[in-house]
Amino acid sequence: MSDSSTNFYDLVQPAVKKVNPYVAGKPIDELKREYKVSYVSKMASNENPLGSSLKVATALHNFAANMSRYPDGSGHNLREKLAAFLQVDMNQITIGNGSNELLELVARVFAGPDDEVMYSQYGFAVYPISAQIVGATAVEVPAKNFGHDLPAMLAAITAKTKLIYVANPNNPTGTLFRRDDWEAFISQVPSNVLVVLDEAYLEYAEHACNDGSYPNGVDYINAYPNLLVSRTFSKAYGLASLRIGYMLGCAENISYINRLRMPFSVNAYAQVAAITALSDPQFVTKTLRTNDQGMMQVRNAVEAKGLEVIPSFANFITIKFGENALEIYEKLLREGVIVRPLANYGMTEYLRVSIGNNHENNHFMGALNKVL
Ligand SMILES: Cc1ncc(COP(=O)(O)O)c(C=O)c1O
């Protein structure tokens, strides 16, 4: 039994004490509660402004009678669907509670306190957290033009490097690396160093990169057994609330990840939704068209105000507001618009804005006119 003098901090694992927790976008209800605003546009978490496919809603409704059953922990039906969709073997795929779960699991499977885990400056916040959780040394390689400097990452590999996270495109900067640079990189990474290629925004990037130079990770998993590719249904498929993503790699590495995965980490609704979403490519096409229009609308409007943006290949855009960025963020909240401050990435002068639907984009631009 503990008494009131117990200092629980002393009981916490040293690696956990070092973890900087993930900072999520402000939830809509929180803003309504705190700021008493009734109408909110959330443009802070790169969600799909069209919602999700109507076919998914119908499938979930029909599935409700099965709520009392545990899900299939192996996600057999979804993996079968994905295997056919991607032309890979089922045993090259595992599913996770969002790709986030898998990104973190990889670190727990492959890295420990004596290892180095590498990622780029401005790389997605989950990478350093995953390194910290396992007590590994997090190695941040300076970015180049806000994107990954792949040659510098290669040069930073040491005998202790176990895992390298790269995101294509990257969040929060929206930057992309092309096929030539990727191939030069992956072909030179030693085979005993794992590379995790995070393709959360793959659909947007493949579409935006219309000269075909986007390197699709699936094309490389057979040639490079040390490569793992993560993807999500949270973005282009609009299923963020259900928490479902997947990882691709060589069957052996995937089997080790499955050892650590909790038996039922992906619920049955999420699996049914993902299977159905894959059968509605028209929804993704509409999503990409909406994003194209919104990206142009927002980018043109902010550039017309003389603001600089980081050109983005995803469904968000990062804008330089200067030293008043946080103040502008606060003022936008009062106008009912939630965007994302980037101070936790060391980008204190920037705000990241998720591209919304026409209505949300207009709300943001109207609010910005007022605030500036
Ligand atoms: C680059 C990147 N990777 C992974 C994720 C995690 O997505 P999820 O856990 O919803 O699949 C995100 C979410 O914003 C992201 O931006």
Features:
372 residues; alpha/beta; Aspartate Aminotransferase, domain 1; Aspartate Aminotransferase, domain 2; seven-stranded mixed beta sheet; four-stranded antiparallel beta sheet; 15 helices; 13 strands; 40% helix; globular; binds pyridoxal-5'-phosphate
List the helices and strands and how they pair.
Blueprint: H1 8-11, H2 14-17, H3 28-35, E1 41-42, H4 54-63, H5 76-86, E2 93-96, H6 98-110, E3 116-120, H7 126-133, E4 137-141, H8 150-155, E5 161-167, H9 179-186, E6 194-198, H10 202-208, E7 227-232, E8 245-248, H11 251-260, H12 268-278, H13 281-304, E9 308-310, E10 316-320, H14 325-334, E11 337-338, E12 340-342, E13 347-354, H15 358-371
Parallel strand pairs: 1-11, 3-4, 3-5, 5-6, 6-7
Antiparallel strand pairs: 2-8, 7-8, 9-10, 10-13, 12-13
The structure holds pyridoxal-5'-phosphate (PLP).
Residues 46, 98-100, 124, 167, 171, 198, 200, 232, 234, 240, 245 line the site of pyridoxal-5'-phosphate.
Q: Please summarize the sheet with the most strands.
A: 7 strands, mixed
* Shape call: globular
Individual helix count: 15
Round the mean pLDDT to the nearest integer and report it.
96
- CATH topology tier name of the largest domain: Aspartate Aminotransferase, domain 2
- Beta fraction of the residues? 15-25%
Keywords: Amino-acid biosynthesis, Aminotransferase, Histidine biosynthesis, Pyridoxal phosphate, Transferase
GO biological process, one term: L-histidine biosynthetic process
Domain Aminotransferase class I/classII large: 42-367
Family: Belongs to the class-II pyridoxal-phosphate-dependent aminotransferase family. Histidinol-phosphate aminotransferase subfamily.
